[in-house]
Amino acid sequence: LNVGVFGGTFNPVHMGHLRAAEDVRQTLGLDRLLFVPSGAPPHKAAKGVAPSTVRLEMVRLAIEGNPYFEASSIEIDRQSPSYSTDTLKELGSSFGGKARLWFLIGSDAFLEIHTWKNFDEIFELADLAVMLRPPPSPDIAPPSKLSAKFTKTENGFVHVSGKQVRLVPVSMLDISSTAIRKALLEGKSIRYLVPDSVLDFLNNSAEQHLQWFQGSKE
Ligand code: ATP
Ligand code: MG
């Protein structure tokens, strides 16, 4: 069983996330792909971040109808801040150790992975699918501290544990939640950047979403 695990703030979820996930799902032949919105984000101040239940609901709306995609509340249900290592361990045991987990991560986030808690463990808990997103990234390589543990392969790297870091080509959509929040705060259209279901949800909560996103970074 090949299971994708796509973590993020999803504040809000957008077409860049969805199309990249669809590309990875197809390229790697994943059986299931879990979208895992963060709970209280350890990296971002809560300011400008919609409540986790709202971000989860938008993910649910966005993926509706795709039989491979599922929304997971595993990080939201936890009281303490969630680290990817905890999530991967918990998901791994929820499949009775029988699933091969693929951790989906954008190139921008991958290049900062050395700042994450216990990041070296991530490479032992899951295979990684690194999705290139605009702007063109410098050469993607494992964290330099760990470089001795990796060997170059045809489409990425392999860790001494045997787990892969695979660079997966995806449709390069220059869409970010930051740009969407900015457009919303400026009263501009975000149509075609998010699915219609998410657009409707945001339109139906027009006053609240200004509050949620007010003061968000950038
Ligand atoms: P923000 O601008 O608030 O940081 P974001 O658009 O980067 O939002 P996140 O929730 O931070 O979205 O991203 C979750 C994951 O999805 C990260 O690994 C990120 O790199 C990846 N990702 C986000 N947008 C894209 C995209 N357009 N193409 C490929 N991957 C993406
Ligand atoms: Mg981001």
Number of helices: 8
- The percentage helix is 25-40%
Shape: globular
Main sheet makeup = 8 strands, mixed
Beta fraction of the residues?
Answer: 15-25%
Contiguous low-pLDDT stretches (5 residues minimum) are none
Secondary-structure element order, N to C:
EHEHEHEHHEEEEHHH
Radius of gyration: 17 Å
**What order do the strands of the largest sheet run in, or round the barrel if closed?**
3-2-1-4-5-8-7-6
What is the subunit organization of this protein? single chain
Tell me, rounded to a whole number, the average pLDDT.
Answer: 93
Structural class: alpha/beta
Bound molecules: adenosine-5'-triphosphate, magnesium ion
The end-to-end distance, rounded to whole angstroms, is: 40 Å
Number of strands: 8
Description:
The protein has helices at residues 15-28, 52-63, 84-94, 107-110, 119-125, 177-185, 196-204, 206-213, and strands at 2-8, 32-37, 69-71, 100-106, 127-131, 150-153, 156-159, 164-168. The N and C termini lie far apart (40 Å). The chain has 218 residues and is of the alpha/beta class. The chain is globular, with a radius of gyration of 17 Å. The longest helix has 14 residues, at 15-28. The protein is 34% helix and 19% strand. Strands 3-2-1-4-5-8-7-6 form an eight-stranded mixed β-sheet, sandwiched between helices. It is built from eight helices and eight strands, in the order E-H-E-H-E-H-E-H-H-E-E-E-E-H-H-H. A hairpin with a 2-residue loop joins strand 6 (150-153) and strand 7 (156-159). The structure holds adenosine-5'-triphosphate and magnesium ion (MG). Adenosine-5'-triphosphate (ATP) binds next to helix 1, strand 4, helix 4 and helix 6.
